[in-house]
Input
Amino acid sequence: MATEERTEELVGELYQAVITMDDEGARRLSQAALDEGIDPYYALTQGLAKAMEKVGQLYADHLYFVPELLLCSDALYAGLDVLKPHIRTGQSDKAKQIIIGTVEGDIHDIGKNLVKIMFEAAGWVVHDLGKDVMLQRFVDEQLEIRADVIALSALMTTSMLAMPTAIEMIRARDPRVAIMVGGAPLTRDIALKYGAHGYARNAGEAVREAQEMLKRLNGSHI
Amino acid sequence: MKERAHADRMKTEGMPSAERLSALLKGEPVDRVPFLSFILGFCARNVGYSVASIYSDPEKSLQAQIWTKEQYGYDSDPFFGYASYGGYEFGGEIGLPDGQYQQAPSHKRFAAEDERAVEDLKTPDARTAGMLPLAMRFSQAQVEHAIAPSVVLGGPWTVAGNICPVHTLCRWSIRKPELAHRLLRLATDHLVEVVALWVDSFGAGRVRLQVWEPLTSNQIVSPKQFEQMILPYEIEFHEKILAKGIGHILCHICGDQTSNLPRWAEVPMGAHGIVSIGKEVDIIAAADCFGERCIIAGNIEPSLLQTGTPAEIYELCREAIIKGRRARGGFALMQGCEVPVNSPPYNLYVMNRAIHDFGQY
Output
């Protein structure tokens, strides 16, 4: 069993491995954490996830860009692959759920994938529907999963027109779910106009926006 | 924005478009701010054709664009091009736009998804690759209509990111830079060959060239990576094609490229070239960076054309024109990227009206 000091040292190194895009290091340190009896959930939340939160901030501050973010996420997943099988059921039972997808007509998914990474790193259960997702599928999945949030992505100006239709369709069947949108042609004004509850300018801001959106909505009638 | 009498709205005195554009490119005085339109699928829908026909049928594409230009009064000529250029040309597959939410060809299969495929790649034959035979037919039709033949290509980085998935290219750019450089080399060599084919077919000094480079946006790559990895290929590409007899390059630097501007200013664009900027780049910042060497074109937000009111667009155009008139190299009002096919037509007309109201010299 690792001492508190050793635990913090290892978790700190895990954090650094993600920030420095060191996937081999993240895998090795995660195994070391297990071998030394460190709670894998603690290593995940305080090492990997916290690092990804920092990476999101670096991205939002234009200090990291897509290549760096992708390589940090590779390090995150390398560590997660080792730690996740050892996390006891119940430790993350209260995790929030999100359904995410790029809307019908749009095959661009890099932005959506970055957002997905940020939610997974933050401990959310992510149901990724992929790209060019038929609008009815968002409705059907929501009726089955009852996620807390649905996130719609679009890169193309034309395909973003699918968003208000999707929002209307989803809300007709589940008025309680929070819906957020994002993508290059979107703005907060357009998001509001489309009836979305939330809007994130980039992947780095998406999780915080979702949390704030849920807070806002839980304080209202939704 | 006040209502106008019909006759007043339709007044068209001044230089003819061709004369205005020619003067702009030579750095000579023009009567008013030129109006360039980044417009493809909208034209097809405008005349009752399928959006896909803009890419699949050169004759219909040209006709739709000629008619739409006549209707809306912009100065730029029809062109044939698509942003995912390179994927199909290097052996991948694309799908033509289909359904109510698409307006451009999109990738169905990439030409190279792993290291081995990149190593095996060769530059394709510019006469037969992908959409190039259709692009050549379009240029021939342009000439038949007394329009300068044009060719539209991606920049080296965007072509590299169309040959393989963008996320793969991004990873390789740091983990396996030799693969990213190989793709940039193949892309650059291919692009030079395509331009050479057009110049050989139509003559030096006659071909109008557009280069679209969205993937160098700082929403994707850092200014440092742009400078160190990509910029040398951009400079090489532009130098080589200018040497082949291209007089002016219209370079569309899509997205937020503000931090790249000083580096883009090192890329030769011809005398004069046009730098077309997106909504994310400030017109004055771009004008200051390029000085007298380039015309700045931009930067009306396409999503506002689609969702905004005429008054909002009119105001945005007014602001852009006021800023643009300070550009020492010249300014043209243009959309920051392609006009969405579903834009209310009146919103496009409003751009012309703003030019007539605020763009007179």
In short: Chain B has a mean pLDDT of 95. The CA atoms of residues 283 and 320 of chain B lie 7 Å apart. The radius of gyration of chain B is 19 Å. The longest helix of chain B spans residues 177-202.
